[in-house]
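# step 3/5: fold
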Amino acid sequence: MASLVPDIVVDALMDGGDLPTRRRPRLRVWRLVVLLIAGAYFLIPIYAGLRFSLENDAGHLSLYAVKVIPSEPGFTQAFWLSMRLAIVTLAITLVLMVPTSVYVHLKFPRLRRVMDFVTILPIVIPPIVLILGVLRAAPLWLRASPYLLSLVYVILSMPFVYRSLDAGLSALDLKTLVEASRSLGGNWFNTLWRVVVPNLRSALLSATVLTLALVLGEFTMASLDLWTTLPVWIYQFQQVDAHVSTAVSMVSLLGTWLLITFIVSLDRSQSRRNRRKTDS
């Protein structure tokens, strides 16, 4: 009959030692302190902005600044310009970066270090230097279009998008997937669209979130290119009514946060459905 006493207990008693005790998780105070400091660093400015935007000139609570946002001159045009630039930038970025990243991983893996170096340059080069160089070199018809900013934003978002895709591709057995698809008669487009892209869902969502956050919050290039995007409008309207300008900043911050949360939740819901299918 097998003994019901665990071996570790028997060994401890034979050695004359005490029974092993289960370690209790200790709450490390320094972790709590770091979390509180980080939370205060982010939340106190947001609280101050919300409080200022919800006050009138007399210091009383009022929703006037929030209610008049849609009717303020230039707000609608600036908002839709920022949204158009975000959509165009995202489309161009994904069309360029996804095939390039897949091709480098599949055919030229030794060039990954070169790609890492090239894609880090937009972080090193200041945006003001980049936009001044583009404005001097770009033709007149392109400088007259706001979508010149989309082309520049593609360069700015390249470090974040490439690293998201690189991490996603590194987690895949890309060569096996592509060879299996090609052996079944799939061409390169179908292989990329139906095999590779579905497996890069998390990486693509991360790239989307980073690109949208960058475009919707960029100020320097848009102001130097003389286009009134939402951040430029907020800065200019601050001289007219600081309460309304701050309210727009808070609303745009909340809207961007909700948009990013929605995009991230799509990936989580899809992952849960895949787990349920796997478990069943």
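# step 4/5: annotate
Residues 1-5 have pLDDT under 50 and may be disordered.
# step 5/5: archive (pending)
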